[in-house]
Automatic annotation (TrEMBL):
Keywords assigned: Coiled coil, Signal
Signal peptide interval: 1-22
Family, as annotated: Belongs to the Skp family.
Name under which the protein is recorded: OmpH family outer membrane protein
SUPFAM superfamilies: OmpH-like
Gene3D superfamilies with a match to the protein in the record: Skp domain (3.30.910.20)
Residues forming coiled coils: 79-142
Length: 200
């Protein structure tokens, strides 16, 4: 009996969440600027459009860091669980293969049917576990997007900005923006302060 070994792919949470931030920009307006210093001193209410560097935002936003760790831990736990179940099943198959010469035709047929059902159950378990992780990841990505979008909505209203764009390296829409319009560090400070309050 040939056993198909299926593995849960490791979660690329960081990559997925970077794409969420890019999507955040797509829902507003995509922007590409030259890499900028995070100086906000010269940004005034007269500057109706500002931008946030999503690369910096994701690497320095504490909520994102915690979320990434959480999803990686869950992904590893699911993989470990699946590997243990696969190994137990493979041991059963090896045991059957060693004993099959001493079994009657009826016993062999019954054992092979039982092992076939177990293999199907294992494959279904793997698919369900993968789907559950993907669903949870999608919910977490939505929560991340909502946290950032809600914060930016209030931030823009307070500052009098008409639009907050997102910049990500390699995601080109605008070739240049004055670095004085980069409000990343101010946004990061506000997001991290809000997240610290939420954790308490």
């Amino acid at each position: 009996m040939k056993i198909t070994t299926l593995k849960l792919g490791s979660l690329l949470t960081a990559t997925a969440l970077v794409s969420v931030m890019a999507a955040c920009g797509n829902k507003e307006t995509k922007t590409e600027t030259t890499p900028a210093k995070t100086s906000t001193a010269s940004v005034t209410a007269d500057d109706k459009i500002v931008y946030v560097n999503s690369d910096s935002l994701l690497t320095k936003y504490e909520y994102f860091k915690d979320l990434k760790t959480k999803m990686e831990t869950k992904g590893k736990a699911a993989e470990t669980d699946l590997t243990a179940k696969q190994q137990a099943f493979q041991r059963e198959v090896q045991q059957y293969q060693q004993q099959q010469g001493t079994l009657s035709a009826d016993q062999r047929a019954a054992t092979e049917q039982r092992l076939g059902r177990k293999q199907q159950e294992l494959q279904a378990y793997q698919q369900n576990a993968g789907a559950a992780l993907q669903n949870e990841q999608a919910k977490e990505q939505e929560a991340l997007y909502n946290k950032v979008a809600d914060f930016l909505k209030g931030y823009a209203k307070t500052k009098g900005y008409k639009m907050v764009l997102t910049y990500a390296k390699g995601n080109s829409a605008i070739l240049f923006a004055d670095e004085s319009l980069d409000v990343t560090s101010e946004v990061l400070k506000g997001l991290n302060e809000a997240y610290t309050k939420d954790k308490k």
